[in-house]
Design goal:
The complex is a heterodimer.
Chain A: H1 9-23, E1 27-30, E2 38-40, H2 42-46, H3 48-63, H4 71-96, E3 105-108, H5 110-130, H6 134-154, H7 161-168, H8 170-204, H9 206-221, H10 224-241, H11 255-279, H12 283-291, H13 296-330, H14 339-347, H15 351-387
Antiparallel strand pairs in A: 1-2, 1-3
Helix pairs in contact in A: 1-3, 1-5, 3-4, 4-5, 6-15, 7-15, 8-9, 8-11, 8-13, 9-11, 10-11, 11-13, 12-13, 13-15, 14-15
Chain B: H1 4-19, H2 25-28, H3 45-75, H4 83-93, H5 98-109, H6 113-137, H7 141-149, H8 154-187, H9 197-205, H10 209-241
Classes of the chains: A mainly alpha, B mainly alpha.
């Protein structure tokens, strides 16, 4: 076995996952949204056009096998395969829903998820090998988001059960989406407004460091359900007893307690990364700035903060991804957001409704994570170039 | 971060509360309204704590075995092809919200303890795997070379040099997974898992702040104790490894 293998082992793994996906049922056909259904494969749900789709999908999976496959070809195969799988799902749903059974539901089954996983892994593997420049990765992210939006708005997927849930409540959906974004970004904004100055303070007064970071660390260990839960009686009590608090918008119900809970979770990464970022400024740089006659404030604004930027952006990424996920729990305490669909769906055992809440949350978290990762990568290179002439 | 004395006091207080919750009723009484019960009695707090911890321990033990095993595989010569993919999958996978993973496990496994166990297991894999990779790929090269020079077999190098040196980093991954799992398990009670989240949910449904506070305080204290326990284990492993 000393000779180089002709077949790439990752390729073999992706092909096996994908072929298993093709062999398993692509969709589930159910008479209505609650009852269990009948599993159907791609050819069984689409007839001969199903074979016309299954053959190129299988060919794309087998094309991933050669060890000498260039990464860009792997990326193209992965993206095309994923697109084709999604379109197959949409067409299968349209073919299966009879006009005289408006309550019938078609939902993606194991086969679809495995196909999507195989192609996504192939694309991820190719991307990790290509390691394209940041500008290309921005293009890829933007392209993926735009393609996703185009597919969703084209109506190709309109007959899939999750989209049925969306159609029956699209006004509510966009209101909850706005609420979700408001909670995630609003708490991030609040955390930056208070956490960054606090981080500077902790850096400049090292005696405070242990106490502040210790307290914020303890806050971080409070389980999310307890944190959101405790906010309700706490702010209900404050609104009822502190004069003027209720008029200022403090309330025990709605979005306010959720916003405060998210804000508290966001503080630790912001404060500690600000302090770490400032501490990582090399002493010769700080001394040179002092030697140039800069005041302490000038040094902070013009030298230390720009150098700490990448570390602060890393904190923004952590907080945003974490908050987009945690905002789901706001749905449990009446704070709105996509969590409202998740918990409503769990209560009604309507899994399509759960998906309507969970899938957009995952998509948002992924896009935010990738976008801020790219921003951090860009900021990581920039300060060095700027300081080089000095 | 928090002194040992404070931790010991918290542990004692927690034990006292779990053994005899009723004696804390006067403390919780002010949080109730209209004569609502101050202490949750539907299910014994002790049994909820035990099943909560059992879920977390079972899931995280399984995650640790699988994640460390996979981490070892992709850092051997034979598995190195998978390393770039593995790094990317862990980076992307960790942006998946734990609650969403929990919600997606329900269609597969139905309601009860199992979807929670699956979600905790899946989500627990990533931090442990990431830290195993970090630990095994940043070993000082001269140590690995020395072990090779001494004529150790690859298996001996792994068990006697690489894993002990990486242990502190691996343990901090397990700590992260365990603390996240403890919190996610509480949300598991929305899909009918037997955890302390049940107390909080009951408090939310009947607007009884006393229930919310006692459920939250028990989980938070457990989280602090588990966090401190793993930190102690990490520094023990670190000093054993000679850092």
């Amino acid at each position: 076995m000393s000779a180089a293998p002709r077949i790439s082992r990752q390729g073999l793994l992706f092909a096996l996952i994908g072929l298993a996906g093709l062999a398993l049922p692509l969709v589930q056909l159910r008479p209505n949204r609650i009852v269990p259904g009948e599993p159907l494969s791609l050819p069984a749900s689409l007839g001969w056009p199903g074979w016309a789709l299954a053959v190129p999908l299988a060919a794309a999976l087998l094309a991933l096998l050669p060890a000498r496959l260039p990464p860009w070809a792997g990326l193209a195969l992965g993206l095309t395969g994923a697109l084709l799988s999604v379109l197959a799902l949409g067409w299968a749903a349209t073919a299966l829903i009879a006009p005289d059974a408006p309550l019938a539901r078609v939902s993606p089954a194991a086969g679809f998820w495995l196909l999507l996983l195989a192609f996504a892994l192939a694309a991820a593997d190719a991307l990790a090998r290509l390691a394209p420049p940041v500008a290309w990765r921005w293009g890829l992210l933007l392209g993926t988001v735009l393609a996703g939006a185009a597919i969703l708005s084209s109506g190709v997927l309109g007959d899939i059960s999750v989209m049925r849930e969306y159609q029956s409540r699209h006004d509510v959906f966009w209101r909850e989406a706005g609420r979700h974004l408001l909670l995630a970004f609003g708490s991030l904004g609040l955390a930056l407004a208070t956490g960054l100055p606090l981080g500077v303070l902790v850096h400049q007064v090292p005696r405070l460091r242990g106490a502040v970071l210790g307290a914020l660390n303890a806050v971080q260990t409070v389980p999310s359900l307890a944190m959101f839960g405790i906010m309700i009686p706490l702010f209900g009590w404050i609104a009822a007893t502190v004069p003027g608090a209720a008029a200022a918008g403090v309330a025990g119900i709605g979005a306010f307690p959720a916003l405060v809970a998210l804000f508290l979770y966001s503080l630790l990464p912001v404060v500690s990364n600000m302090a770490v970022g400032l501490a990582s400024v090399p002493p010769p740089v700080a001394e040179a700035a002092a030697g140039l006659g800069m005041t302490r404030a000038q040094r902070l604004w013009r030298v230390e903060l720009p150098l700490a930027l990448p570390v602060v952006l890393a904190a923004v990424r952590i907080v945003l991804v974490q908050n987009i996920g945690l905002t789901v729990i706001a749905g449990l305490i009446g704070g709105g957001g996509f969590g409202a669909f998740v918990f409503q769906g769990l209560n009604q055992t309507a899994m399509d409704l759960v998906l309507l809440g969970a899938l957009p949350t995952i998509a948002l978290a992924l896009v935010a994570g990738v976008a801020l990762g790219l921003l951090t990568a860009q900021a990581g290179g920039a300060p060095l170039e700027r300081t080089a002439p000095a | 971060m928090i002194g040992r004395a404070a931790l010991a006091a918290a542990a004692l207080l927690l034990a006292a509360f779990l053994i005899s919750p009723d004696s804390f009723a006067p403390l919780l009484e002010p949080l109730t309204r209209r004569g609502a019960p101050a202490v949750y009695t539907q299910t014994s707090l002790w049994s909820l704590t035990v099943s909560h911890l059992a879920l977390v321990a079972g899931a995280i033990a399984a995650s640790a075995v699988i994640a460390v095993g996979l981490g070892v595989l992709v850092t051997r010569d034979s598995g190195r092809d998978f390393l770039p993919l593995a790094r990317m999958v862990t980076a992307v996978g960790q942006t998946f919200p734990p609650v969403a993973v929990l919600a997606l496990a329900v269609p597969v496994l139905g309601f009860g303890d199992w979807p929670t166990l699956l979600a905790l297991f899946l989500y627990g894999l990533l931090p442990i795997f990431e830290n195993t990779l970090a630990g095994l790929t940043t070993l000082p090269p001269q140590v690995v070379e020395a072990a090779r020079g001494m004529g150790m077999t690859p298996a001996q190098r792994l068990w006697r040099v690489e894993l002990p040196l990486a242990l502190p980093v691996i343990l901090s991954g397990v700590r992260l997974s365990a603390v996240i799992a403890l919190s996610t398990a509480a949300i598991g009670s929305t899909v009918a898992a037997h955890t302390l989240g049940e107390v909080i949910i009951a408090g939310l449904l009947s607007s009884n702040a006393a229930f919310v506070v006692q459920g939250g305080a028990v989980i938070a204290t457990l989280a602090l104790l588990i966090d401190a326990g793993f930190r102690a284990a990490e520094s023990a492993a670190r000093s054993r490894a000679g850092f």
